[in-house]
Amino acid sequence: MTIAVTGATGQLGRLVIAGLRDRLPSASIVALVRNPAKGADLGVDVRLADYERPETLEKALVGVDKLLIISSNEIGKRAAQHRNVIDAARKAGVKEIVYTSLLHADTSPLSLASEHVATEEALAESGVPHVILRNGWYTENYTGSVPVAVKVGALSGSAGEGRIASATRADLAEAAVAVLTGEGHAGKVYELAGDEAYTLADLAAEISRQTGKDIPCNNLSEADYAAVLKSAGLPEPLALAIASWDAGAAEGALFDDGRQLSALIGRPTTSLKDAVASALRT
């Protein structure tokens, strides 16, 4: 069986490739990338596959049995890009597609949801057996701010009292590997979130505990948080988007307590304590 992974040189993609190599011969793993030179260190078959150049996709998928489509990072272009991959997979005879969607995509208030829903619909229309991994927020989306919070003496956000059941990239990659190398997953939709839900205040308290410093949580309005992000150097559209996603968390968009992720990987998900400790070591 040959398994291919799109976006294989990205942060999640590299973790999935590494996980597959732990379970399968390298010769049965294919890394699909837009720049093959960047995948030279992956230790597997690297093939050119550009989301926006359909002629590269079908060629890259020859002989592939299972395909993991890691969602593109080009917001606004993703639905069309993903459809190109799905169409190419169908033509190439791929037997099963696994897609990384968004937690509760069909009901999520987040602006990101619509492109994921469109992709899920394209998969349904394709007739190719498929699995939907509705990935929750990466814990790193928040712990990436830990060093800055320690430096400035506060953690800011607009998530209010919203509970965030995030999971690390490593946990989500392990779930993808489990599905790709397992059987009986076709037709299923998995809502993947961390076992431990926390608020931004909980995150600030954990940072304080581990550093011995008082790191309060500044819960700001969506507009004020966007302004803070913009002043930190983020482009305005990205600052507005991040603030809106945080505000979505306040509405419960990042919460799930089904524990489907820990069930898939066969262990508890990485704790907030361990994730913060890891961030402080970087």
UniProtKB/TrEMBL annotation:
Keywords: Oxidoreductase
Broad EC category: oxidoreductase
Coiled-coil ranges (or none): none
Protein name: NAD(P)H dehydrogenase (Quinone)
SUPFAM superfamilies hit by this protein: NAD(P)-binding Rossmann-fold domains
Pfam families: NAD_binding_10
Molecular function per GO: NAD(P)H dehydrogenase (quinone) activity
Annotated EC: 1.6.5.2
NAD(P)-binding domain span: 7-181
Originating organism: Pseudochelatococcus contaminans
TM region(s), chain numbering: none
Matching CDD domains: TMR_SDR_a
PANTHER family the record matches: NMRA-LIKE DOMAIN-CONTAINING PROTEIN (PTHR47129:SF1), QUINONE OXIDOREDUCTASE 2 (PTHR47129)
